[in-house]
Amino acid sequence: MSGKTVLIVDDEAPIREMIAIALEMADYDYLEAGDAREAHALIVDRKPDLILLDWMLPGTSGVELARRLKRDEHTAEIPIIMLTAKVEEDNKIQGLEVGADDYITKPFSPRELVARLKAVLRRTTPPGVETPVDVDGLRLDPVCHRVTANGGAVNMGPTEYKLLQFFMTHQERVYTRNQLLDQVWGGNVYVEERTVDVHIRRLRKALGPSHDYLIQTVRGTGYRFSTRAA
Fold first, then answer.
1. Do 89 and 185 reside in the same domain of the chain?
2. d(CA 223, CA 200)
3. Which domain covers residue 86, as residue numbers?
């Protein structure tokens, strides 16, 4: 499997089924929702890698849902492809203005859909998730699940690795302990905030004196990964 999960949001079951078959053949996992409310619950709970979102939905429209997702920092980075029967230019512009990454007009071929989906995922996947990322001689290779510092292997536990991968793919931004718990441990896991401090200490120790400066404490707020002086 590609390891990627796509959420299909469409109120027509036959269309969802057609897309699901195409995704299965292309080795993608998928989730299905028939309306915006069901879709939003799945997005918050399961964090899909991409959303295929129908323009016309019962109740809240696809455009309204897209607007809501892009306003929320927890869901703003999830790429969205709008599906619609509308071909008018202003609808396309409206879809892109609310933050959609691409736009496919019905009817479409499953092969075209998968090709467009792959292109959007390639564009929106930061280094460090599928390709190696290097910072000041520190290298994280997600394919080999390996960290090296100036060419030498760095040993760390699985939680420290996940923490470092999150930091290296979200550089220069301050995260609170709660935000790190949500992003690294997952929203459904009960872990105390102090646990974050313990793993930060372990991560700094693993990185050693040559790279521990990259993990910076921001007093009263949380932590950030930065190459600039604190």
1. no
2. 9
3. 5-124
